[in-house]
Amino acid sequence: MANPTATFETxxxxxxxxxxxxxxxxxxxxxxxxANAGFYDGLHFHRIIPNFMVxxxxxxxxxxxxxxxxxGGPPHGTIRDEFLESAKFSNEPGTLSMANTGQPNxxxxxxxxxxxxNRYLDWFDKSTPSSHPVFGKISDGFDVVxxxxxxxxxxxxxxxxxxxxxxxxx
Length: 170
Hints:
Blueprint: E1 5-10, E2 13-19, H1 25-36, E3 47-49, E4 53-56, E5 95-98, E6 111-114, E7 134-140, H2 142-149, E8 164-169
Antiparallel strand pairs: 1-2, 1-8, 2-7, 3-4, 4-6, 5-6, 5-7
């Protein structure tokens, strides 16, 4: 059984990602359910840091200038951390990783796409307390993700809004 593919349509182009449903069932199912319910449609990338990552999934980012962008989550609340010995995916370039508040079991709708290898964010790397499980990887259109990254600033706020028109998983 092949893992499903998420298609992201953005104001800068489209890209696709394999979602690791078989390997990361809790995190992947949460993402798939939100995507297919239209939760992500119309949101903006709210945090973009060049040579690090691009972050997405806050419901307050429908308004790209909202001071609350980056502070919200899904209507159903948070999910349990999924740290599986059988799924030790590193935060490599192009991987989708669950964002959290730094507290256990605080992931929900926000995730980020690594644009460089951020191994110190791996849940199994004990050099820092950061623990972000990877649940997918860009399979097509990483150049579009790099265009999104190009809208970043050192402060994390985008120079120009990048809107996600839709995310669907099939």
